[in-house]
Amino acid sequence: MATSDKSDLVKIYHSLGRKKRLGTVILFVTSACNAKCRTCFYWQELNQPGDLTWDEIRRLSLGMPAFTDFWLSGGEPMLRRELTDIIHLFHTQNGVRWVNLPTNGLLPARTAEWISRICEENPGLQLDLNVATDGLHAMQDSLRAVPGNFTKTLETLEAVQPCRRKFPQLRVNVNTVICAENFDHVMAIAEFVKANCAVDGHYFNIIRGNAQDPTLKQIPTQRLATLYRDLQAVYDYYADQVFRRRTGLGRKIAQVYYHGTLALHNKIQLENISSPHPWPMPCTAGETSIVIDSNGDVRSCELRSRLANLRDYGCDFEKFWQAQARAEELEAIGRDQCWCTHVCFIHDSLRHSPKVLLYDIPLTYLESKFSSPSTQGHGFQAVPSLAGPAAR
């Protein structure tokens, strides 16, 4: 067995024993935004005073334990003056190994400059830059409510190419929010990106939360399973690029888990698009992940209510983590049965379930490969599921 094959098997083995402790932090680095996206679930909190100061963020980092995954959000992260310093702080102080950085693509030159700085200052840090592309030409401009946004998006993708070629730890992706307005154009968007943009991945998420334009949530749910099946070809295309440096069994294992995980995301979203349906694993929001708003409000999940404000604890994260409010929230999540379509928390939760890692992901991979279009109305059902009721 090749060394890379052993490495992949070791990673899977260790993930089965992953302890339920804080591993993912979602930090809204600013409320400032230079777009008015009609799909945005956070629109009421944008462009408000009271963002955490640099000193408060430093205190927050000092009181936080080591964690691995750092998801940044906003507002538009590229509008936060200390963005590169924030990433460097949490990488060096808290051991962050992976950063997810979204952008609306409206600041090409700044994005290229700051991405280069992040990669230069943090060797060993994996950085995923996700550039939002929800439509082509006028549709992108309309959904984002910014004239010329589509042109700026393409300029941003082009501007970061020197960084993408120079830094192997950088992945440049496109992210598309599926909504009522672009539903019939999703595959055209995917084909355009493949033909015209040099990127490492293209990911698709269902519109969620309290969207600024609620009509965009009226997607044809009866056709969503077929769209997800069509998107498997897009995932196939990028999987070949993501794992191009691997060979043999290691490459096959990585591709199965890549496809299987994305297919499981889609399956869970399908089951929850109209009404809550139990996931195949417990939701670990508030236990393995936490959301910190730009003003210091803290929530277990972006779709749940505020638990506290970190300023009430002097930005001492450990004091909040031990607070009764968080303990009560963990009980409430199980009691409320608030199953949702939020892929960030679906993904983080499944990483802590040996059953999902050993059984559901490989099975869903097979289902996605061998199911027929006629079975798509209720998800991937061609291969009988033996999973039974979801664990809680």
Give structural notes.
- This protein has 14 helices and nine strands.
- With 392 residues, it is of the alpha/beta class.
- The protein has a domain at 19-219 and 284-350: TIM Barrel.
- A hairpin with a 4-residue loop joins β7 and β8 (297-299).
- α4 packs parallel to α6 (149-159), α9 runs antiparallel to α10 and α10 packs across α14.
- It is globular.
- The two termini are 37 Å apart.
* Tally of contiguous helical segments: 14
CATH architecture classification of the domain at 19-219 and 284-350? Alpha-Beta Barrel
Strand order of the largest sheet: 6-5-4-3-2-1-7-8-9
Query: Helix/strand/pairing class, anyone?
Result: alpha/beta
CATH homologous superfamily assignment of the domain at 19-219 and 284-350: Aldolase class I
Overall geometric form: globular
The strand count comes to 9
Termini separation (Å)? 37 Å
How much of the sequence is in beta strands?
5-15%
**Which stretches are low in confidence, meaning pLDDT under 50 for 5 or more residues running?**
1-5, 373-392
Considering DSSP H and I runs of 4 or more, what fraction of the residues is helical? Answer: 40-55%
Largest sheet: 9 strands, mixed
CATH topology of the domain at 19-219 and 284-350, what is it called? Answer: TIM Barrel
Elements, N to C (H/E): HEHEHEHEHHHEHEHHEEEHHHH
Broad CATH class of the domain at 19-219 and 284-350: Alpha Beta
Radius of gyration: 20 Å
- Integer average pLDDT: 89
What oligomeric state do the depicted chains represent? Answer: single chain
